[in-house]
Amino acid sequence: MENSDLINQIVKKEFNLPAELLSQDAITNAYYNYDKISSIAKWIEERIHFKPRIGIICGSGLSDIAYLIADKQEIQYADIPEFPRSTVHGHKGVFAYGNLNNLPVICMQGRFHPYEGYSTALCTLPLKVLKLLGVKLVIITNAAGGLNPSLSVGDLMLIKDHFSLPLLSMQNPLVGHNDERFGPRFVPVSNIYDKKLRALMHKCGKELNLDLKEGVYGTISGPSYETVTDSLFYLKNGADCVGMSTSHEATVACYCGLKVVALSIITDKVAIEYDAEDGSDHNEIVKIAKLKAKDAEKLVSYFITQLGMDSRWLE
Ligand SMILES: O=P(O)(O)O[C@H]1O[C@H](CO)[C@@H](O)[C@H]1O
Ligand SMILES: Nc1nc2[nH]cnc2c(=O)[nH]1
């Protein structure tokens, strides 16, 4: 059977309508239903023989976080049946897993972005897989452009909230049929970046003598960067930095009952004056993220040690 026939058949069964009449997220969620995601998780489980408790998503240029894992093993996304591929420079497309400071961790060296052509539901499929693998908490990282003039290149910023026009305007990964086995239809997100975990992260930052900033992550869909007017709009509405990921991932993690903590590394300053030079360049962004990643790695490692000291964090 042709793949499009199969998709049509699945969608027809669920909605009694042809797939053309539905949004991409609704189609994705019908295709990647609970059973299919369970079979992806089972496929992984059978190969890794390992029960992760912490998930880490590595942002652009931040995949070396995985080298913190002592006995690191890998599984390629390309080997996992019906799993998407990473297509962006700085995203390897690998699950790395093993113990990090004695806690079982699975690390995504590579995420999926809506601008690659994936629906937001497909971009966040890994979060549902992580949930079924046993993950309780995710640490999301990203490279972001600094909007707030108080942020400098190389700063680490703990995300306290996000502002996402794509999420607010129907690019929401939860659109479509809901399966309560993952989470509820309507999801409260006012404490999406868990307040207690943020306090713990700040404590870690202090103890490591790091100047950890805190702020709001603004999401654009990309792949074009922001115009000056876009940037001013985000800045005036409370965003401190901007990027093309994270918010939809945090939303699905929260929906699935995973605790979320998220960090941005500021890789460039966003133009907020009309006659400013446009400095956004992805190769440069990846280069800066790699150069400045050491502090993020130290912080994540120490944070995981602290999580290990109280079993309630990973309940
Ligand atoms: O968010 P991550 O994946 O770190 O990457 C950021 O860097 C890329 C733009 O240069 C975009 O993908 C943006 O989201
Ligand atoms: N200006 C800008 N810089 C970035 N660095 C990482 N992501 C982004 C982005 O979306 N915009």
**Global mean pLDDT:** 94
Fraction of residues in H or I helices = 25-40%
CATH class: Alpha Beta
Rg, alpha carbons: 19 Å
What pattern of helices and strands is seen along the backbone?
A: HHHEEEEHHEEHHEHEHEH
The shape is globular
| Structural category | alpha/beta
Strand order of the largest sheet: 5-8-7-6-9
Classify the fold: give the CATH topology: Rossmann fold
The CATH H-level superfamily is Nucleoside phosphorylase domain
Topology overview:
Elements: H1 3-15, H2 24-31, H3 34-48, E1 54-57, E2 73-76, E3 94-100, E4 103-109, H4 120-123, H5 125-133, E5 137-146, E6 156-164, H6 165-168, H7 195-207, E7 212-219, H8 228-236, E8 241-243, H9 247-255, E9 259-269, H10 282-307
Bound molecules: 1-O-phosphono-alpha-D-ribofuranose and guanine (GUN).
Please, could you describe this protein's structure?
The purine nucleoside phosphorylases catalyze the phosphorolytic breakdown of the N-glycosidic bond in the beta-(deoxy)ribonucleoside molecules, with the formation of the corresponding free purine bases and pentose-1-phosphate. Belongs to the PNP/MTAP phosphorylase family. InterPro entries: Nucleoside_phosphorylase_d (IPR000845), Nucleoside_phosphorylase_sf (IPR035994), Pur_Nuc_Pase_Ino/Guo-sp (IPR011270), Purine_phosphorylase (IPR011268). Its EC number is 2.4.2.1. It is an enzyme of class 2 (transferase). The protein is of the alpha/beta class and 315 residues long. It has one domain: Nucleoside phosphorylase domain (Rossmann fold), CATH 3.40.50. 35% of the residues lie in helices and 20% in strands. It has 10 helices and 9 strands. It has helices spanning 3-15, 24-31, 34-48, 120-123, 125-133, 165-168, 195-207, 228-236, 247-255, 282-307, and strands at residues 54-57, 73-76, 94-100, 103-109, 137-146, 156-164, 212-219, 241-243, 259-269. The protein has a 5-stranded mixed β-barrel, surrounded by 4 helices. Helix 8 links the parallel strand 7 (212-219) and strand 8 (241-243). Helix 3 (34-48) crosses helix 5 and helix 7 crosses helix 10 (282-307). It is globular. The model has no long low-confidence stretch (mean pLDDT 94). It binds 1-O-phosphono-alpha-D-ribofuranose and guanine (GUN). 1-O-phosphono-alpha-D-ribofuranose binds at residues 59-60, 88, 111, 113, 142-143, 222, 243-245, 282, 285.
